[in-house]
């Protein structure tokens, strides 16, 4: 489908999705979210793609849900249409690793979208925040939950109650992002992570993602049990035999994703 609000390109085995609504700082309107969901699903289904990078512009990853689009919506309309429902959460259904590469503003739904990705790499220009309180609302796409789990209660409470933004250095210190890089290197560094993932065994990558996600969605005991089951099941793959044989033989493994 031809996209109007995102750009897509592939770099090797990495699918790159760029939010592209510069006049609105990539505000996440319905059309943009629908296009993003479609592009994510397409890359997930494409065997040539091993990892996905979602990014925005230099000025904004995304400045949140589209305030102008939602300002006159009524409760029955948002409730019945499941605003912030399936359309916003497609990224959670993607089996391949999804990397958020954030430069500039990641606010409200933009911060929430980044946090729904598997990891966030930030440019030194990045600014994260949940400023919904300034609009008389609260985060609605998981921000109060994912930010709190990522950075802890006190900081999350301060940010969500006051709308204070956090710069890239603080985001790294607070474990919201895995790494901060110069803005000019952001895409290259994000793609490099994707390429590294692409060089590994796809079943182990998918199970590693599932295991880490279990840490967010279950108790410690259940999470450890999930990890154990996934770990043991990898002994059924040819890639486990290849990976370990290659180590013992002091050569590079040739993974075949089976
Ligand atoms: N929705 C709609 N339009 C937006 C927008 C948003 N979230 N954020 C920015 N824009 C638009 C502005 O209205 C402006 O458009 P016009 O030129 O037509 O006036 C354009 O983008 C550029 O923005 P600014 O002129 O405001 O740029 P700035 O550099 O002065 O300020 C900013 C940048 C601090 C990010 C400011 O734009 C801002 O505060 N934006 C809103 C951030 C926000 O409140 N996000 C939360 C939204 S609610 C939400 O996301 C709910 C949820 O949890 C799902």
TrEMBL record:
The keyword Transmembrane helix does not apply. InterPro entries: ClpP/crotonase-like_dom_sf, Enoyl-CoA_hyd/isom_CS, Enoyl-CoA_hydra/iso, Enoyl-CoA_hydra_C. CDD domains: crotonase-like. It catalyses: a (3S)-3-hydroxyacyl-CoA = a (2E)-enoyl-CoA + H2O; a 4-saturated-(3S)-3-hydroxyacyl-CoA = a (3E)-enoyl-CoA + H2O. Pfam families: ECH_1. GO terms for molecular function: enoyl-CoA hydratase activity. Keywords: Fatty acid metabolism, Lipid metabolism, Lyase. The keyword Zinc-finger does not apply. It comes from the Bacteria. PANTHER family: ENOYL-COA HYDRATASE, MITOCHONDRIAL (PTHR11941:SF54), ENOYL-COA HYDRATASE-RELATED (PTHR11941). Belongs to the enoyl-CoA hydratase/isomerase family. Could possibly oxidize fatty acids using specific components. This is enoyl-CoA hydratase. It comes from Neoroseomonas alkaliterrae. The lineage of its organism: Bacteria, Pseudomonadati, Pseudomonadota, Alphaproteobacteria, Acetobacterales.
């Amino acid at each position: 489908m031809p996209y109007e609000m995102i750009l897509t390109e592939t770099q090797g085995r990495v699918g790159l999705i760029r939010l592209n609504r510069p006049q609105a700082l990539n505000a996440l309107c319905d059309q943009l979210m629908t296009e993003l969901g479609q592009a994510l699903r397409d890359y997930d289904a494409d065997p040539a793609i091993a990892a996905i990078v979602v990014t925005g512009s230099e000025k904004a990853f995304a400045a949140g849900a589209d305030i102008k689009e939602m300002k006159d919506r009524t409760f029955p309309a948002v409730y019945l249409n499941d605003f912030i429902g399936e359309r916003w959460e497609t990224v959670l259904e993607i089996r391949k690793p999804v990397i958020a590469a954030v430069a500039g503003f990641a606010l409200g739904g933009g911060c929430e979208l980044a946090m729904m990705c598997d990891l966030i790499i930030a440019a030194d220009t990045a600014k994260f925040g949940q400023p919904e309180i300034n609009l008389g609302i609260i985060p609605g796409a998981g921000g109060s939950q994912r930010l709190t789990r990522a950075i802890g209660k006190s900081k999350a409470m301060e940010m969500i109650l006051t709308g204070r933004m956090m710069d890239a250095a603080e985001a790294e210190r607070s474990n919201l992002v895995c790494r901060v890089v110069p803005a000019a290197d952001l895409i290259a560094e994000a793609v490099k992570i994707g390429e590294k993932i692409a060089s590994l065994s796809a079943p182990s990558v998918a199970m590693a993602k599932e295991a880490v996600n279990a840490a967010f969605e279950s108790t410690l005991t259940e999470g450890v049990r999930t990890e154990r089951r996934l770990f043991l099941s990898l002994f059924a793959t040819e890639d486990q035999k290849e990976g370990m044989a290659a180590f013992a033989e002091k050569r590079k493994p040739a993974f075949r994703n089976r």
